[in-house]
Amino acid sequence: MKNKITLNSVTYPNKILIAWKEAISGNEEIRTWLMKSDYKELGVFCFALVNDKSSRKWLFNNGYPHLLATIEGTEGKEEALVWLQKNNFMLLFHVARSADSYIESQKWLQKNDKLMLAISLQMEYVKDEIEDKNIDPHRINP
């Protein structure tokens, strides 16, 4: 495992990426800490991942379209995946596809970056929970 990952000129130490994974999993204390840190975009990402429109807009308008494209890629939006590839965000391309249950990308991350694999699997879990709630007939309003 590498000691840090650079995405679009921002370098994230592993401890920050581990905190991000925990925030994605629902740890509000860590998410709040991220929001107040130099890595605010990772805290905002957590809200955007659960479909908060203002957070998605914030990512796009504040220089983090690659993080927004990653979320949209997890949702199967092909144009977001194409954009990630075209702009050489191959790691995030595979994170998005892995979070959308593509085994090939999970294998690629297993080989190339296990921490980002763990993050993608946490994202997959969150998105699956949202989908399950959306299709649960007991939760649908008439």
Write down the domain tally: 1
Number of strands: 2
Q: How large is the share of residues in beta strands?
A: 5-15%
Residue windows where pLDDT falls under 50 for at least 5 positions: none
Order of helices and strands: EEHHHHHHHHH
Average pLDDT figure: 91
Helical residue percent band = over 70%
The general outline is globular
**Sheet having the most strands:** 2 strands, antiparallel
Q: Number of helical segments? A: 9
State the strand order across the main sheet. 1-2
Distance between the termini: 49 Å
Structural class: mainly alpha
The Cα radius of gyration reads: 15 Å
What does this protein look like?
With 142 residues, this protein is mainly alpha-helical. It has one domain. It has nine helices and two strands; from the N terminus they run ββααααααααα. Strands 1-2 form a two-stranded antiparallel ribbon. β1 (4-7) and β2 form a beta hairpin. The model has no long low-confidence stretch (mean pLDDT 91).
